[in-house]
Structures are given as C-alpha cells and as structure tokens.
Amino acid sequence: MADLLFKSIFRLFALLPLRVLHGLGALLGRVIYVVSAPYAARTRENLRQANLLPDNSQYQNLLSATIAEAGKGLTELAWVWGRPYEEVVGKVREVVGMEHIEAAQARGKGIIFFTPHLGCFEISAQYAAQRMPLTVLYRPPKLRWLEGMMRNGRERGQARLAKADIGGVRLLYKALKRGEAIGLLPDQVPGQGEGEWADFFGRPAYTMTLVGRLAESSDASVVIAYAERLPRGQGYVLHFEPLLLDFSTPVPKQINAVVERVIRTCPAQYLWSYNRYKTPRGVQPPATRTGD
Prior knowledge:
Blueprint lengths: L1 H13 L3 H18 L1 H14 L5 H27 L2 H5 L2 E5 L1 H10 L3 E4 L6 H8 L5 E5 L7 H9 L4 E5 L2 H12 L3 E4 L10 E6 L2 E6 L1 H9 L2 E9 L6 E8 L7 H13 L29
Parallel strand pairs: 1-9, 2-5, 2-8, 3-4, 3-5
Antiparallel strand pairs: 6-7, 8-9
Helix pairs in contact: 1-4, 2-4
C-alpha cells in the first residue's frame, strides 16, 4: 500500500514545474532537518569538518542553504525521472568544458565520468547519454519496488545501469574496451576490499580504488562531471573537467583532492548529509594519527 501511495505522489510531483518542485524541496529539506536528529547532526558535523567558512555567521548561512539544496535534490528527482527525456536534458542551460568530451571521444579509448554527490548528479548522466553509450554503476535501493522506477528514470537515451557487484564491474571494463563511456560516484563509500583510506577535507574517508584500476587498464580519459542548480528552477549548468591521474601515487588521494576542489565551487549543493566517513563492515578503521 505504501509503495502505491509513494508512486502516486511521485507521478504527481513529476507534473509540477521544476521551479515549484525546488520551492517545495527547500521546505521539505528544512522539515527533514528538524524531525531527524541523526540527519541534522551528520549534516552539521560533515559541513563543520570541511572548515569551508570559519566565520560562524557565514557557516550558519551555508548550513541553511545546504539544508534547502538537499531538499531540492529529493523533489527534483521526480521531475528528472518522470518528465520526457528531451525536456529533462533541455534544462541544461549551459555546458562548460564540452571540448574535453570531444577530445576524449577523439582519443577513442573510452571515457570514465565521475560525478560526486554535488548538484543534480542525476542529470549529468542523462545529458551525456544523449551523445554516447553510457554504462553507469549503481547500488539497488533497499526498497525493492523502487528499483523499477529508478531504472525507468535512469535508463534513457543511451544509458544503461550496471549493479555494483563483480558482474557490474565486468560490464564497465567491457564498455571501456568498446571505447564507450562509463559513470561512477567517486565519493560513494565502497565495500570491503574495494577501497583505501584517504583524507577528505582533512579526515580519513574510505575511498574507491576502482576508478584507478579502470583508468590504468584501459587508458580511458577521466572526466569530472557535475550539474550545478540554477536559482528558481531555471535549470542547470553542466561542468566537465579532465583529470590526469598519476598512477605512481595513490589514486584515491588524487580523487578526493579533486572532489574537494569542485565542491568548493558550490559548497551548498554538496550532499553533506551523506555518511562519507563511515567504516564499512569488515574494513579495518584508519590508524589514529599521532596527536589526534
């Protein structure tokens, strides 16, 4: 019964203009912040940990904006998944760095897009998938009935999903071998044996090693992609930046450094509520630094 109610609300939301959904989302974000103490505590802790704005009044303003942007990320999901594909990608009002995609395609070695939890990370893949075959790694939702909606919303254009397991990783390797594109979330906490500890805003975070393995074995181009929300539901600015990895040094450390840098461009739109610093089951916690 609950799943039918949710699906009905989701379809109703998809009919609303993006401007209205972002307004509702800002309100929803504040409601969730008030009613969920763990959510609120993690948001505050992670944002304070980043030390972006040491002045307390500036921090409070950023926290307020962050809460609203997180809510927008929830409500815009119905619009991105539920509206016609052409309308969704048409909301990308500007593309910065398209020349890097064209250069990567000309190399013919495949493209590894990595998109942090910044802005509307759903629309980045949809936009790329109108131009090239794209295989995106994902984790099935805990609510099984939600997976069908997710696949219908994400597998549009030339996009296809691959589960975050050994079979899905094989699909990524095969796609790169064909010279196609793949997509990953570089700041998603990996499972046991799939990551290394590397600093993220000055604190150890278990970080995936898959990007480095894929890039080194395929010689694919690595491109950072994120979609910045414009105010009042006007749409999005899509940013593409190349990343040249040095395989003689730890790749997770390089990944976290570049993710930090792009977050600083629009920090309110990062998903600070994400449990980025958790220790996955079976993983040895990071060593405590001397003096900590």
